[in-house]
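Regression check, zinc ion case 275:
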Amino acid sequence: MRYIEPHGHMVSRTTDDYIDMATAGCACVCEPAFWAGFDRSSADGFYDYFCQLTEHEPKRAAKFGIPHFCWLCINPKESEDVKLAEEVIGLIPKFINRPNVLGIGEIGLNKNSRNELKVLELHIDVAAQHDQLILVHTPHLEDKLKGTRLIIDALKSDKRIRPERVIIDHVEEHTIQLVLDAGFWAGMTLYPESKCTPARAIDMLEVYGNENIWMNSACDWGVSVPLAVPHTALEMRKRGHTPELIDKVIYKNPMKFLSQTARFQLGPGSGGLNA
Ligand SMILES: [Zn+2]
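Current build output:
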């Protein structure tokens, strides 16, 4: 098996997790900028975090033979303070051309507030100015449908944004069609407690097809499973899906989306240890 982990918050994970991922066939990991579990007190905290994502974590991942890529932003949970967000967004151009940066993310909405929406628009503008891919976080539970609609409206109203260069993550049964119909990619997040279980993700693949869809673990500092993608691949095999289809969903699809930026290059033989 080979797979790409397109959404993992590796700064929160242990070296054991890297070993498990490498032995399961992880070809690379992509790390969106995220909330630390607590609010950072200043833009300086983000400066250090962006250094961690672009300098230090790639070195840690490389010790286990896993290429590491990242996305930059201030996440929606810290976007209520627009002045802080403006300062952080002002730092992004200093980092955007670093070799492992894939684009702007995970941006989006958390509580669907007016300030969050303003900060989302600022991020979309930065992405458009620098011709970057975008990775979007959608809100939880009852805020998800409304938030997904607001996010799609914000993206569609900026004519510089091409939907095929945007992935909208954490889709569920009631938002996946909306996202795909609007021309965006859809990400399914495999969580043990919320978002989407492996069984639900496979149900969605069976109903909505396997084009422009990827799966991720979104593993972070909370309850989450770094091997959720290979676990789901095993579940697909149990349900009788072909090795070709499984490879498409967990490797070729993320490869296709991410290859839209020239920075996404995997070295020879990096199909994971088992490829
Ligand atoms: Zn995330």
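Comparison notes: Residues 43-62 form the longest helix (20 residues). The chain has a mean pLDDT of 95. No diff flagged against the previous build.
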